[in-house]
Amino acid sequence: MLVTAAFIGPGTVTACASAGIGFGYALLWALVFATVATIILQNMAARVAIVTGQGLAEAILAAASSLPVRWAMAALIFAALGIGNSAYQAGNISGTAVGLSLLGVKSDALTQPVLALAIGVVAAALVIIGKPGWLEKLLIGLVLAMSLAFIGGLMVIDVDWSSAARGLLPALPADSLFTAIALIGTTVVPYNLFLHAASVRGQFSSDRQGIAAASLDTAVSVTLGGLLSMAIVIMGAATSALPSAGAGPLDEVALRLEAMFGSPARIVFALGLVGAGFSSALTAPLATGYVLAEMMGGSSDPERRTRIFKRTALAVIAIGTAFAVLAVNPVELILIAQSANGLLLPILAAFLLWVASRRQSLGSFANGPLANLAGGSVVLVCTLLGLRLILRAAGVWP
């Protein structure tokens, strides 16, 4: 459930709401692909961690054949997580503030920075004093609240289910490629691979039964997250005939739902947005702290690792809070960051596929031909989508 709490954030709400408002149901297929790809990759990350007893960053760096390769991998991991998560954190905090404002918490130009600062302070306090067990319970509670809000919201709106079914067939309407990659990038999140690996060590036994239990846990949680994302797209599509409310995607759907079905629909959607924002405001810094602690903490010095973990997590919260307090509009930043995630994903997924295939460290739990075929297919599709986006940006692809 940590993975679901992490990838259903304001970035997901932004990308999914934008997809629904702009392209109707046409891009639902991208979320189906992204959900299946997430299950495949998260299973590999969990298996590597359970069998080796290492975090994913540790396993990747340990498998590097030379120092230059190790440094290159470390730089890529840091860029994908340290820099990217600091940018996402601004959106997480701002998205939580938007959700609170839609619930009726006043958020004019004077109080919005104060609200963002308060959210950042609460997140920092939970990281400092929180225990892993009850932090996980809090995040699971937020995921269940999101589920009731977003999936329950489908019960009160008019959905064209035949059009939604057609959206499961792969197609790219005009100007939709950027949004399709953003949908994949907001679901198959690189930092979730590292967060998942860090969280499952010690929770499952390193035998067939433990690996099977971890796989079931992943499949159920990620499928729930995929359904939540699809629900947001469907909400956006169901309101797309209404004129724009003049707001950003984070609250456009809520205002349109209110116009169609009254304030209860807005409140339900806002509760989901608050859950999405605050759960991601915790998991993004936690994931970054885990990874930096793995890479710099030293395996024989738990106290040093703990210090690096907490300082890194607090730094991510501080940077995100600063941007949110300065009222930097996060919407464009989030969409660009999600697309950057989609471009970085093939590289990190290829690293994971390589590590999960090494019999030297995983023995009989290493990837077999079927797992390599599935993982390789994910890497290939993500690479082709990313390459097409780059070529279109360069004016080479129409």
Counting H and I runs of at least 4 residues, what is the number of helices?
17
CATH class: Mainly Alpha
The oligomeric status of these chains comes to single chain
What share of residues is helical? Answer: over 70%
CATH architecture: Up-down Bundle
What integer value in Å does the Rg equal?
20 Å
Structural class, from secondary structure content? Answer: mainly alpha
Count of individual beta strands: 0
Proportion of beta-strand residues: under 5%
The CATH superfamily turns out to be: Amino acid/polyamine transporter I
Shape: globular
Mean pLDDT: 79
Give the end-to-end Cα distance, rounded to a whole number of Å.
40 Å
Main beta-sheet annotation: none
- CATH topology, by name, is Amino acid/polyamine transporter I
How does this structure look, described?
The chain is mostly helical. It is 79% helix and 0% strand. Helix 6 runs antiparallel to helix 14 and helix 9 packs across helix 15. The two termini are 40 Å apart. 52% of the residues are buried. The model has no long low-confidence stretch (mean pLDDT 79).
Summarize, please.
The protein is mainly α and 398 residues long. The protein has helices at residues 2-7, 10-23, 28-52, 56-63, 67-102, 111-129, 132-153, 161-166, 177-187, 190-200, 208-238, 249-261, 263-296, 302-325, 330-356, 359-362, 369-393. The two termini are 40 Å apart.
Describe how the helices and strands are arranged:
Layout: H1 2-7, H2 10-23, H3 28-52, H4 56-63, H5 67-102, H6 111-129, H7 132-153, H8 161-166, H9 177-187, H10 190-200, H11 208-238, H12 249-261, H13 263-296, H14 302-325, H15 330-356, H16 359-362, H17 369-393
